Amino acid sequence: MLVSITFDVEHDCPPYLTTTRGMEEGLPKLLDLMAEKKVRATFFFTAEMAKRFPELVKRVIDEGHELGSHNYNHERLDKLTKDEGERAIVKSLEVLREFGDVVSFRAPNLQFPSYYYDILAKNGILVDSSKATYKGYREGVRFFGDVLEVPASTTSSVIRLPWKVQKLVHARLKEPRVYFAHPWEFVPMQREKIRWDCKFNTGDKAIELLEMLIDHYRRQGAEFLTMRDYYEVYQKLKRE
Ligand SMILES: [Zn+2]
Questions:
Q1: Of 83, 100, 127, 219, which cross-links 104 as Cys (Cβ 3.0–4.6 Å)?
Q2: What are the pLDDT digits (tens) for 21-56?
């Protein structure tokens, strides 16, 4: 059984807020939890957050996780021209690659016009995780040219639902199960003026539920893969 825990590392609840409580309080807690549970995760950083919190990027790398790109400053690719989008991606990679190797990408808001596969390939990206099964993408894990698409399985708020409810969702997901969440979901957002689904069970409750999710899959003998791990597996299959 293949499971992936991924985080989109950005300022708090874009585009509604500009604060960075998730970075200051949420991300350190997530890194502690991943270390305690011995799970390697993928962290898709915006370049902006990497520049402001370089010590957290270093922690991600030093603790054996994968660093990916979540664009420069959370620009939505579907709202930019192709050239503007490419410039934002290239600029984000320039910043992130100062810290280490970056081969994976996730588009902000999982908005990813398919002509970006070529742009990613040209810029050394091997894995994209911008398509979403819950938004109707049905093709599973496959190559688009040289880029492997590893779609996200559920929207992030699912893993904050009461455990009994979310368990039913997990059981119905196809493999690989690719979850994503944001650092700001792990600090209390109840007082902010944002959408209801962005606030419920945020804070320590979300940490507790993520821990339950990891334990749930551990008990079933699941393997936790980073995005780059999929590339190794599928590249091998392709050669055989
Ligand atoms: Zn995002």
A1: 127
A2: 999 999 999 999 999 999 999 999 999 999 999 999
pLDDT tens digits for range 8-23: 999 999 999 999 999 9
Q: Based on the structure, what is the number of domains in the chain?
A: 1
Q: How many residues would you count in the chain?
A: 240
Element (H, E) at 47: helix 47-52
**In angstroms, what is the span from residue 216 Cα to ligand 1's centroid?**
26
Segments of the chain assigned E as strands? 2-9, 42-45, 66-69, 104-105, 127-128, 142-144, 147-149, 177-181, 223-224
Q: How far is the CA of 20 from the centre of ligand 1 (A)?
A: 13
- Determine the average pLDDT of the residues in 154-173: 95
Residues with a beta carbon under 5 angstroms from ion ligand 1: 8, 10, 108
Q: How far is the CA of 7 from the centre of ligand 1 (A)?
A: 9
Confidence of residue 239 (pLDDT cuts 50, 70, 90): confident
Distance 74 CA to ligand 1 centre (A): 6
CA of 146 to the centre of ligand 1 (A): 24
State the sign of the Cα–Cα–Cα–Cα dihedral 121, 123, 129, 130.
negative
**Quick one: which of 142, 118, 126 has its CA closest to 226?**
126
